[in-house]
């Protein structure tokens, strides 16, 4: 049997690599590279723990638990990326638009910068409310 077939047979029923695994390995390599210059036992142990946990996740047979862990990671990552993107858009649009929150559902709305009082309808919850610009 070829190596690839043996590996595929071994990995059958196991979770494999996902986005959390990729993140953990990138963090491992960063800590490892920093540790080349600092030479700390704490960083060595931390990097080995990360590598061990990432390997454990790849070879795990508990697919549902690993999937839940990955979903939690993706939810946290997407909320962080969304917040960074919102701040970037606020800076980009600071001269032409304002950002206000809906009082009912707390969704962030992007509104044109026009002086006066305007009635706004939230696209998420359809709430009507007045905004003074």
Low-confidence stretches: none
- Our estimate of the beta-strand percent is 15-25%
Biggest pleated-sheet summary: 2 strands, antiparallel
- Give the total of domains: 2
Distance between the termini: 72 Å
State the total count of DSSP E strands: 4
**Oligomeric state of the chains?**
single chain
Broad structural category: alpha+beta
Sequence of strands across the biggest β-sheet: 1-2
- The number of helical runs is 4
User: Which of globular, elongated, flat, extended, rod-shaped describes the shape?
Assistant: elongated
* Radius of gyration, whole Å: 24 Å
Order of helices and strands: HHHHEEEE
Relative helix content: 55-70%
Average pLDDT for all residues = 94
Key words describing this protein structure:
2 domains, elongated, 133 residues, two-stranded antiparallel ribbon, alpha+beta, two-stranded antiparallel sheet
């Amino acid at each position: 049997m070829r190596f690839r077939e043996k590996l595929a047979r071994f990995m059958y029923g196991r979770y494999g690599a996902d986005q959390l695994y990729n993140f953990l390995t990138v963090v491992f390599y960063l800590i490892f590279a920093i540790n080349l210059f600092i030479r700390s036992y704490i960083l060595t142990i931390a990097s080995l723990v990360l590598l061990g946990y990432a390997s454990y996740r790849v070879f795990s047979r508990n697919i549902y638990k690993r999937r839940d862990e990955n979903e939690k990671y993706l939810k946290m990552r997407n909320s962080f990326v969304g917040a960074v993107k919102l701040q970037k858009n606020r800076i980009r649009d600071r001269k032409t638009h304002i950002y206000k929150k809906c009082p009912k559902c707390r969704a962030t709305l992007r509104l044109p910068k026009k002086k006066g009082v305007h009635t706004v309808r939230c696209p998420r919850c359809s709430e009507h409310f007045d905004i003074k610009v």
